[in-house]
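Q: Structure tokens for this one, please.
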Amino acid sequence: MYLIGLTGGIASGKSVVASRLAEHGAVHIDADALAREVVEPGQPALAEIEKHFGSDMIGADGHLDRAALASVIFADPERRAVLNAITHPAVKERARELMDAAAAENPHAVIVYDVPLLIEARVDAEHEFDLIVVVNANTQTRLARL
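A: Here is the predicted structure, written as tokens:
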């Protein structure tokens, strides 16, 4: 397997780069999508969030109330660290499962692991990337894309 770490700021063009690589056969693993997946109803991370932050974080439909959680974690760095301690390991585990499955299917698979905060979250220390691609765009372009 050939593992590419893909990173860059918001609206920098990461999705376009990932799509182009996928068009050529690369397997795209999106950390943001995994972060949403691991807090779906029935997932252990959602139960941990409820345990640590209270039932107010869960909507009537059983899904995470992202607005309620955001109001708590953005106001309190310690609580944000608790959330990260719950979700980051779950995302890493799921990403590893997907990487292993892709490599089992094709030992020569090219895998693009799209992680916006690859360096900041120390994801680069946890995986042996063959290549890290940083996507960048000027501020005006990024603001226009938002």
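A few notes: The first strand starts at residue 2 and ends at 8. The first helix runs from residue 14 to 23.
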